[in-house]
Amino acid sequence: MDEKIILLGYMGSGKSTIGKLLAHSLALPFEDLDDFITRKEGKEISEIFAQKGEIYFRKQEVAYLKELLSSPSPMVIALGGGTPCYGKAMELVRAASPYSFYLQLPTAVLMARLLPEKEQRPLIAHLSQEDMEEFLNKHLFERFPFYTQAHFTLPCHGLSPEQIVEKIKAQIK
C-alpha cells in the first residue's frame, strides 16, 4: 500500500479507533489530524477554539491537512469531524488519494457515544442532552454533502471496529 487512506465522519464515528487498527493491520503510520494540530499548535483543540475562535482553527486545520497530504509517505489519516466541510478540504482529500472513507453512523449511536465525553468536545460541551440530539441531526444534515464526497461510504452501525477495518481493506486491495 503506497497510498494514503483517509477516514472521515462525524465526531464519535470511530475515526481514530478504526484508523489505529487499520494502520496497525497494514503496517502503516497513523495520524489523527486533531492530534497533529494539537502538537503543532501546542494547545488542545478546545483551547484553540476558546482562545482564537473557530475561524482561526479552521484555517489552521486546512493548512495542517495540506501538510499531511503532501507528505510522500503512505499513512492512515483520521480527519476531524468538521474538516471535510471547510475550505477546499474534500477537493484536497480526493486529489491526494483514491481511498477516502466516510464512516457513517445514525444519530442515536453518535449520541450514545458522545454523551459520556461531551465536556471534551468544544462543539457540544455547552448543550443539554435534549438540545444535543437536535444539534447532531442538524449538523449531520449540513455535513452530509461533504461527507458523501468521500470515495466510499461505509455504514458502520452494528459492526465491530475489526469488521469495519476488514471492509476498508476489501476496498483497497
Automatic annotation (TrEMBL):
UniProt GO MF annotations: kinase activity
One Pfam assignment: SKI
Transmembrane segments: none
This protein's pathway: Metabolic intermediate biosynthesis; chorismate biosynthesis; chorismate from D-erythrose 4-phosphate and phosphoenolpyruvate: step 5/7
Co-factor: note: Binds 1 Mg(2+) ion per subunit.
Binding site for Mg(2+): 16
Residues that, per the record, bind substrate: 34, 58, 81, 143
Catalytic activity of the protein: shikimate + ATP = 3-phosphoshikimate + ADP + H(+)
Assembly description: Monomer.
Reported function: Catalyzes the specific phosphorylation of the 3-hydroxyl group of shikimic acid using ATP as a cosubstrate.
Family to which the UniProt record says this protein belongs: Belongs to the shikimate kinase family.
Name the UniProt record assigns to this protein: Shikimate kinase
Organism for this UniProt entry: Capnocytophaga gingivalis
Encoding gene (name): aroK
